Structure formats: structure tokens, C-alpha cells
Amino acid sequence: MTEKEQAMEIKDQQQVPSETTERTRDWPCFVPRADIFETDDAYLIKLDMPGVDENKIDITLEKNTLTINGYSNVERPEGYSLAAAEYRIGDYERSFRLTDKINQEDIEASYQDGVLKLNLPKAEEAKARKIQVKVG
Amino acid sequence: MYRRLRTPSMWRDLERLQKEMNTLFSDYTTPGIRTAPSFPSLNIWADEESVMITAELPGVKSEDLDISVEGGHLTLSGSRTPEELPEEGQFHRSERGYGKFTRGINLPFEVETDAVEATLKNGVLNLMLPRAEADKPKKITIN
């Protein structure tokens, strides 16, 4: 390969650590890989959630905790046996604690090609609350 | 000469494939040594007549994906491009990764290239690779 473009590097897929409460669904649950970008007005979040149907995604924002749940509906192909496996099919779950207040009404979410995109605009009061620290 | 009965070559090849995959995996489990996982992750399903490969390709558009089959070799390559972001701002997390990727797989048989089917849905690629008619075992009838 002669291209100088950067080769793809990703983080290893993490499984959601099992807690004392068990999940009702008997299959793994993964922590989706995320990109979080913060601007002055909003948080832009992207999550890799392949194999999830767009209407099987739950996004909740309670106080400052954003929780994303995605339920996979990929089925085992019938009549085939698994010869090699590098990934497992499972659900996705991840929570983030946001430091700024979010304008709940204007949250935008879209799902395309296995990627969930969230735009969380900061509330006006959060923007106004920022106080410039003077040096001197 | 006496020869032992052997398993059909296809299953031997599948076993070899499985072994290769296992060695790939053992890299992850060796404590202290961690290699970056290869992208995309693949699952390989097989029956006597075909192989089905599924790959997790979130954020990869079909036009950025290149699939080629030559005889018994499959190459999957492409790229994931980052989206334009506002200039002002900063990344808190960047786990998804962007760039080019290539993966090659030796299949256990020759593939009927015209009959290969590929679908990309919700970031999951589904590749159906039927075995070439010429490569299928011939039943020999005794006259």
C-alpha cells in the first residue's frame, strides 16, 4: 500500500460489566464506541451500534445522566454453523454524565449505517453561567 | 498401501481457518500484549454449499466499501471518513477511529463470483458466497 492515509485504528469492544442486577435478556451487552465533541453550544455524540434497528434505540436524559440503550435484532443464519467468530451479537448500553444543562426540547437523534448521532444543545442558562476568569 | 479415511478437504480448510482465527485471538488474551483489533470484525458461517460472512461496519457507506473475490480469496477494503465538525470545540472521546482498512480471507473453496450477494444494513455487511459448481465434489457412480 502506497497511500499515506492513516490506517484505521479502533478501540477494543468492551462488554458492560455485570452488576448485581442481571439483565433479563440472555445475551451480551456491549459498551458502544463513542466520539464526543463539545462546542460552546452543544455536545455532538456518535456511537457505533451496528445491527440495531432504529426503532430499537432508547435514549433517556434524566437530570444530567444520558443513557443510550440499543437492542440488537440480528438473528443467527439458519442452517449454517459458525466457522470463525470475531464479534458477538449483543445489545448496547452506555451512560454519560453531562456537566452542562441540556435543552431537552431540542435534542436531535439520528441513526444511519449503524451509527447513532446525537446533538445535545446546551441550555441557555448553562451558556450564560460561564464566567470568564480574569488573569492578573 | 493403506490410507486412513480423511475428512473432506473443505472441512479441513475450515478448521485451518478457525485455527488461524484462534491464533489471532490469542494475541488479545495474552496478558501484557495487546494488539489493536482488526477492523472490521468478521463472523464466518459455513455449510457445504456456501460461506456467509458478516462484518460489523458501522459508519461505512456502501460506496466506500470494496469487496472483491478472486477464486478462493476474498478481499474487503474501504474507509471510514470523519464527518466535518465545527472548528471551535474539542474532543472528549475519540474511540471510533477513522481511516482505511483491508482484510483478506482465504475461503475454503472457489466461489461462484457471479452469484455472490452482498447487503449492507444498519452497519452490518452480509456476504453470501456460494461454492463454484466446478469446485463441488463429484459423485461417482459405479457402473
Helices and strands in order:
The complex is a heterodimer of chains A (136) and B (143).
Chain A: E1 14-15, E2 29-31, E3 34-38, E4 42-48, E5 52-62, E6 65-72, E7 81-85, E8 91-97, E9 108-112, E10 115-121, H1 124-129
Parallel strand pairs in A: 2-8
Antiparallel strand pairs in A: 1-2, 3-4, 4-10, 5-6, 6-8, 9-10
Chain B: H1 9-29, E1 42-46, E2 50-56, E3 65-70, E4 73-80, E5 90-94, E6 99-106, E7 117-121, E8 124-130
Antiparallel strand pairs in B: 1-2, 2-8, 3-4, 4-6, 7-8
Report what the structure shows:
The complex is a heterodimer of chains A (136) and B (143). With 136 residues, chain A is mainly beta. Chain A has one helix at residues 124-129, and strands at residues 14-15, 29-31, 34-38, 42-48, 52-62, 65-72, 81-85, 91-97, 108-112, 115-121. Chain A has one helix and ten strands. Chain A has a five-stranded mixed sheet, with no helix packed on it. Chain A has a four-stranded antiparallel sheet with strand order 3-4-10-9, with no helix packed on it. Chain A starts with 13 loop residues before the first strand and ends in a 7-residue tail after the last helix. Chain B is α+β, with helices and mostly antiparallel strands. Chain B is built from one helix and eight strands, in the order αββββββββ. Chain B has one helix at 9-29, and strands spanning 42-46, 50-56, 65-70, 73-80, 90-94, 99-106, 117-121, 124-130. In chain B, the strands form two sheets. A four-stranded antiparallel sheet of chain B has the order 1-2-8-7, with no helix packed on it. Chain B starts with 8 loop residues before the first helix and ends in a 13-residue tail after the last strand. Mean pLDDT of chain B is 83; it is low at 30-35. Classes of the chains: A mainly beta (136), B alpha+beta (143). At the A-B interface, strand 3, strand 4, strand 5 and strand 7 of A face helix 1, strand 1, strand 2, strand 5 and strand 6 of B.
